[in-house]
Amino acid sequence: MTPVKYSRKGTAVCILGAALLFPAAAHAGIGDILSLFQAISGTVSGVIGPALADIQAVEARVRQLEQQVVWPHALIAQARSFVQQLRAQFTAAAGQIRSLQLNSATLAAPSQLEKLLRASQTSQFDQIANSYWSVFQPLPVPSSATAAQRALVDMDDASALSALKAATASDAAGAGQLALADAIEQQTAGAAPGSAPLLAAQAQIAHLQSQAMLQKLLAAQLRQEAALLARDNALRKHGAASLQELRGNILRILDRH
What we know:
This protein is mainly α. The protein has helices at residues 3-21, 23-26, 30-70, 73-98, 108-118, 125-136, 147-189, 196-256. Helices cover 84% and strands 0% of the residues.
């Protein structure tokens, strides 16, 4: 608020207070009223005026401190220009990289499965499963494989599908992280002074989300490795059982002779 506005309000308040405190002055002559105005004006200009000027000077120094030290305009403009240059330099290149077609399957069923896996859509898990079975074939019927073999095949399929779905979820999360990073870059390019902590908090949240997704992928990889170890161990057990059965058959043949 400017000193003129302060002085006008102060004058009005002083006149009203004088009229209330001194009722006789309200019935006095024009000369007395003019003398009262002159006294009030002298008080405003001699006492209140310098105080308002001091307040205005303090406000000017505070603004200067904010503009030069706390939120320096020159450095802020430099940082915004740098961010805009980086976005102009790398955004187009990153978009071209993401738009590259990396599909390599040629047959119909494998091409459909590869398309679903590269779509990064978690809502297509059922389609991924159906396409997986069309490429890698369903479980063998009980008459064409033993129970142990069917169990191993079923577990291998389950592990493979789980890994494929986890990779799809990771791709979807990665796309979300890229979109969030782009939004933070846009906010940074036009951020107001003092908003750096808010942008830093958003970036930290995005970093935590990325770390959580990495933990999920690590857990999926560990499950995959555990399933492979269990499969290898099951094959050894099956080999040992087959060897024992073969030994028994040989002993029975020798006993006959």
